[in-house]
């Protein structure tokens, strides 16, 4: 294992564990140093114990580099690998095994921590057949959301990366998408023309989460009724222990999802786990489709799907109603219908 590979894996595990961003940045900074320095000098500094003289290298990162250069699996990596494992229940296993892709994830084009290529490589390593890149729309300025010009640039980039993936012999593709903001009146933060060009559209509420329940209901129903919307993202907007659920008439919203063919997302982020259990049960009753999505903002977070699989198994979500258990062609046939 090279120092670069060891640091990359540590970063992956820290992201999987949702570790402090300061800790992750320390290893990202060390990775930048390793990539920039002459390998001979790096080896000499490791041998002489002078790595920490370099800006961006601390005791922990120096240890990882030194042990990797010695042909060892770094002890720090062994520790974070063990501590960041995600539990998958026996009941959740068939759900995870059935998943063929991930319909909601982000890259450095918006607020993600890894470039598109790295997210695709991690998805391939997980055995996925596809991923849907759903960076934020322009309204979410805090997330550096994409306006129409930047989205069109991204579509060209996705074509280029897909060509490289195919040339490398991988049976995997990146599908185009966006997590588009739902405005207060239920309209969407992207033109219908451009929404129609995307493979998969996830629509989510990110603002005015505490608005009146009747208004929120109308807002969400208008969005899921839009023919370009395929998935309703993290429907209550809650953050467990930090932010309460938005209030809306779930009967109306899920009835609309069923009527207009919009899937309800089971968001796997550990601070969201959205919808709550009772709302999953209600969506099942209404005959809704579902999508079990990582909402990953880094490579390690792509491994969060077991959280959603465990919940889906607990609530007995029908596996054949989970859209990302379908092949890419089946998924696209559904989104285009």
List the helices and strands and how they pair.
Elements: H1 3-16, H2 21-36, H3 39-48, H4 59-69, H5 75-83, H6 93-98, E1 101-105, H7 116-125, E2 130-133, H8 148-167, E3 173-181, H9 192-195, E4 200-204, H10 213-224, E5 231-232, H11 250-260, E6 263-267, H12 277-285, E7 290-293, H13 305-315, H14 328-336
Parallel strand pairs: 1-2, 2-3, 3-4, 4-5, 5-6, 6-7
Helix pairs in contact: 1-2, 1-4, 1-5, 10-11
Please compute the radius of gyration using only Cα atoms: 21 Å
In round numbers, the mean pLDDT is 97
Assembly category: single chain
Q: List the total number of helices.
A: 14
Distance between the termini: 47 Å
Helix content: 40-55%
From the helix content, strand content and strand pairing, which structural class follows?
Answer: alpha/beta
Low-confidence stretches: none
Share in β-strands: 5-15%
Number of strands: 7
Question: Biggest β-sheet: count, sense, barrel?
Answer: 7 strands, parallel
3D structure, described in words:
45% of the residues lie in helices and 10% in strands. Strand 3, helix 9 (192-195) and strand 4 (200-204) form a beta-alpha-beta unit. Helix 1 runs parallel beside helix 5 (75-83). It is built from 14 helices and seven strands. With 337 residues, the protein is an alpha/beta fold. Strands 1-2-3-4-5-6-7 form a seven-stranded parallel sheet. The mean pLDDT is 97. It has helices at residues 3-16, 21-36, 39-48, 59-69, 75-83, 93-98, 116-125, 148-167, 192-195, 213-224, 250-260, 277-285, 305-315, 328-336, and strands at 101-105, 130-133, 173-181, 200-204, 231-232, 263-267, 290-293.
């Amino acid at each position: 294992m090279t120092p670069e590979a060891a640091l990359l894996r540590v970063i992956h595990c820290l992201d999987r564990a949702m570790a402090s961003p300061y800790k992750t940045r320390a290893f990202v900074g060390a990775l930048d140093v390793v990539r920039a320095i002459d390998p001979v000098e790096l080896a000499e500094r490791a041998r002489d114990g002078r790595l920490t003289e370099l800006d961006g290298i601390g005791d922990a990162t120096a240890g990882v580099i030194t042990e990797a250069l010695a042909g060892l699996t770094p002890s720090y990596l062994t520790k974070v690998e063990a501590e960041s494992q995600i539990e998958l229940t026996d009941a959740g296993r068939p759900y995870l095994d059935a998943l063929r892709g991930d319909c909601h994830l982000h890259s450095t084009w918006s607020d993600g921590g890894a470039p598109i290529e790295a997210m695709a490589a991690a998805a391939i390593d997980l055995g996925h057949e596809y991923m849907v890149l759903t960076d934020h729309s322009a309204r979410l300025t805090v997330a550096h959301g994409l306006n129409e010009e930047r989205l069109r640039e991204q579509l060209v980039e996705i074509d280029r990366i897909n060509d490289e993936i195919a040339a490398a012999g991988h049976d995997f593709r990146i599908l185009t998408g966006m997590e588009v903001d739902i405005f207060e009146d239920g309209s969407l933060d992207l033109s219908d023309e451009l929404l129609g060009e995307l493979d998969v559209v996830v629509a989510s509420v990110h603002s005015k989460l505490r608005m009146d329940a009747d208004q929120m209901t109308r807002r969400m129903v208008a969005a899921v009724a839009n023919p370009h919307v395929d998935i309703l993202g993290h429907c209550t907007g809650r953050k467990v222990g930090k932010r309460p659920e938005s209030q809306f008439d779930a009967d109306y919203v899920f009835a609309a999802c069923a009527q207009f063919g919009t899937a309800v997302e089971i968001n796997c982020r550990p601070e969201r786990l959205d919808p709550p259990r009772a709302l999953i049960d209600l969506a099942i009753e209404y005959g809704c489709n579902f999508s079990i999505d990582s909402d990953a903002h880094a490579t390690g977070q792509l491994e969060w799907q077991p959280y959603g699989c465990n919940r889906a198994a607990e609530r007995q979500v029908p596996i054949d109603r989970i859209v990302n258990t379908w092949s890419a062609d089946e998924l696209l046939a559904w989104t285009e219908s």
